[in-house]
Amino acid sequence: MVGLRGVGKTVLLNRMQADADASGMHTGRIEAPENKSLNAMLAPTHYGRWPGWPTTAT
């Protein structure tokens, strides 16, 4: 999800998480800093091992 600051992205994500939690789903939160690859954060032990994935974090 992308957009300008202050348009409600975090509010929407928080609501989605609350609704999922209320439905019995397990949720988590990851915030990717601009200087680290989201792929590397989501699958750090597999990063670079799957076909088509970059071999280094950007």
The N- and C-terminal alpha carbons lie at a distance of: 20 Å
Mean pLDDT over all positions = 80
Q: How many helical stretches?
A: 2
Following the backbone from N to C, one meets helices and strands in this order, namely HH
Structural class: mainly alpha
Report the sheet with the most strands, covering strand number, pairing sense and barrel closure. Answer: none
Q: Roughly what percent helix?
A: 25-40%
Strand-residue fraction? Answer: under 5%
Per the principal axes of the C-alpha atoms, what is the gross shape? flat
Unreliable segments (pLDDT under 50, ≥5 consecutive)?
A: none
Global Rg: 15 Å
The strand count comes to 0
Question: How would you describe the overall organization of this protein?
Answer:
The protein is mostly helical. It is 33% helix and 0% strand. The chain contains 2 helices and no strands. The mean pLDDT is 80.
Question: Main attributes?
Answer:
single chain, 2 helices, 58 residues, mainly alpha
SSE arrangement:
Blueprint: H1 9-22, H2 38-42
Summarize this entry quickly.
Helices cover 33% and strands 0% of the residues.
